[in-house]
Write a structure and sequence with these properties.
By secondary structure, this protein is mainly alpha-helical. Among the domains are: about 5-100, no CATH class; about 185-270, Serine Threonine Protein Phosphatase 5, Tetratricopeptide repeat (Alpha Horseshoe). It has helices at about 5-15, 45-55, 55-60, 95-120, 155-165, 185-200, 200-215, 225-235, 240-250, 260-270, 275-285, 290-305, 305-320, 325-340, 345-350, 365-370; strands spanning about 80, 90, 145, 150-155. The strands form two sheets. A two-stranded antiparallel sheet has the order 1-2. A two-stranded antiparallel ribbon has the order 3-4. The longest helix has 27 residues, at about 95-120. Bound molecules: zinc ion (4 copies).
C-alpha cells in the first residue's frame, strides 16, 4: 500500500487541496504524509482530512479500478474479475480474492443483501391481454390460459368471443386469439394438456404437476412426480411452478419441510408477479417480526391486485401495527390497480357469471374505495385470520 498521497490519487478523489474539515483551500494538504496519520492532528489539520486520505484506496477498489487485495490493476482494468456475490470488489485472480475474503466478507454480504432486496422489492411488470391490450386481472377467474397458442386471455375477451359465436349460431368454441377449437369436456382438455406438456410447454407441464399432486384424471397421487414436473416447468420459466415448489417445501410434499427454501421459491415467483407468493412472503416477514419488510410486500401485492394483502394492512392499521399513511397508500395502490384493469367488457362478463369475476373488493373497504361492485351483491367477506398464509393455488 502506498504511504503517501500522489497527485493522481488526489485528482481521482477530488480532494486535492480542500480541507475536509473547514473547506478552505490549502496547499499543505498535498504535503500530509499518511505515515503521520496515527497522530490525531497533522500540523494542526484535523484528523478527518487524514481519514479521507486513508480511504482513497478503498474508494478506488469500490469503484473497480484496482484489485481490492493487491492494488494492482489500473493498467489492466479490463482483466480484473468482479466478485459475483456483491458485484463490487474486483480482483486480479482467484488467489487475490481468497486472500482478501476475510476482510471483504462483511461488506460483501451486506452489499449482496442490498442487491437481493433491490430486485425483490420492485413492482413486477404487469402483463396485457393480447386482444384488448388492457392489463390482465390477477384474480384467477379474471383470465384463461389458452393451451392452443399459449396466451393468457382476459375474462372479458373470452366472454365476448363466446357471445359472438353464439349470435352467429356457431357451435364451435374457437380460441379468441388463434381461432383453434377449444377442447371440450374434462377428458379432452386433459388430453390436450398432456400433449402440450409432452411437447415441452412450460404452463402445461406445471398443470400436469398439479394433476399428479392431486391424483386427478386417473393419474396416481405422486408428490415426487409432481415436484419433478414443477421443477421442469420452472426451468422453462414458468412463474407459477416456482410458487408450487415453494408450496411443496412449506407442506413437506415430496421434500423435507423447509420454510427457508419455500421462501426462496416464493421470492422467485413474487419477482415474476405471482401475487399469492408475494402475500405469503409478507406473512412470513410479519411472523418473523420484520414489520417494514412485511408492509413492503403487502404494498406490492396490493398494487398487483391482492385484496388479501390490502386487508392485512387494514388489520395492521386497526391494531396499531401500520400507520394511517401506510393504510392510505395501500388503498391508493389497490385503487390504481382497479383503474388499470376495469373495463365494460370485463364487467359484462362478470355480471354474466361468477366464473368471470375479475376483482374482489372487500366489504370493509368498499365505501372507502368508492368502487361499485359488478352487478351483484358482493359475497360475504371470507374469514381471514390475520397473517394467515394464502391457500396454495392449483
Ligand atoms: Zn490482486
Ligand atoms: Zn463481494
Ligand atoms: Zn382482453
Ligand atoms: Zn389459441
Amino acid at each position: 500500500m502506498s504511504t503517501s498521497t500522489t497527485e493522481e490519487d488526489n485528482n481521482d478523489n477530488d480532494i486535492s487541496t480542500t480541507c475536509a474539515n473547514c473547506s478552505k483551500e490549502g496547499s499543505d494538504v498535498d504535503n500530509i504524509n499518511i505515515s503521520d496519520i496515527s497522530n490525531k492532528t497533522v500540523n494542526g489539520w484535523s484528523a478527518s482530512v487524514d481519514l479521507r486520505l486513508l480511504n482513497i484506496k478503498d474508494d478506488k477498489a469500490a469503484a473497480g479500478n484496482i484489485c481490492a487485495n493487491c492494488d494492482k490493476g489500473e493498467e489492466c482494468i479490463d482483466s480484473l474479475k468482479t466478485c459475483s456475490k456483491c458485484n463490487m470488489a474486483k480482483y486480479c485472480n482467484r488467489e487475490c480474492q481468497l486472500a482478501h475474503w476475510p476482510q471483504h466478507k462483511k461488506d460483501c454480504k451486506k452489499r449482496a443483501a442490498e442487491l437481493h432486496d433491490e430486485k425483490l422489492f420492485k413492482q413486477p411488470p404487469s402483463e396485457d391481454c393480447p386482444i384488448c391490450m388492457q392489463t390482465l386481472p390477477s384474480l384467477q377467474s379474471g383470465s384463461r390460459f389458452k393451451l392452443c397458442c399459449g396466451k393468457m386471455i382476459c375474462s372479458g375477451c373470452i366472454h365476448a368471443n363466446k357471445e359472438m359465436q353464439l349470435k352467429k349460431m356457431k357451435h364451435l368454441d374457437l380460441c379468441p386469439f388463434c381461432r383453434a377449437p377449444t377442447p371440450q369436456g374434462v377428458k379432452n382438455t386433459f388430453e390436450a394438456t398432456k400433449k402440450q406438456a409432452d411437447a415441452g410447454h412450460a404452463a402445461a407441464i406445471n398443470a400436469m404437476g398439479g394433476y399428479y399432486q392431486r391424483g386427478e384424471h386417473g393419474l396416481p397421487q405422486d408428490n415426487d412426480k409432481a415436484l419433478e414436473l414443477y421443477r421442469q416447468a420452472a426451468e422453462l420459466g414458468d412463474a407459477t411452478s416456482h410458487y408450487n415448489i415453494g408450496k411443496a417445501y412449506m407442506l413437506g410434499e415430496g421434500v423435507e419441510i423447509s420454510m427457508k427454501r419455500a421462501t426462496h421459491y416464493w421470492e422467485l415467483a413474487a419477482i415474476r408477479g405471482i401475487r399469492e407468493a408475494r402475500h405469503n412472503l409478507g406473512v412470513n416477514e410479519m411472523r418473523a417480526g420484520n414489520r417494514n419488510r412485511a408492509i413492503k410486500h403487502f404494498m406490492i401485492a396490493a398494487r398487483g391486485g391482492s385484496h388479501f394483502s390490502l386487508l392485512h394492512i387494514l388489520s395492521m392499521y386497526r391494531r396499531g401495527g401500520a400507520t394511517q399513511e401506510e393504510y392510505v397508500k395501500a388503498l391508493q395502490m389497490y385503487k390504481e390497480y382497479l383503474n388499470e384493469i376495469k373495463s365494460d367488457q370485463r364487467d359484462e362478463a362478470a355480471a354474466f357469471s361468477d366464473e368471470f369475476k375479475y376483482y374482489e373488493v372487500p366489504n370493509d373497504i368498499k365505501n372507502i374505495l368508492g368502487v361499485v361492485n359488478i352487478g351483484e351483491e358482493p359475497r360475504p367477506m371470507r374469514d381471514i385470520s390475520i397473517f394467515s398464509l394464502l391457500q396454495p393455488q392449483p
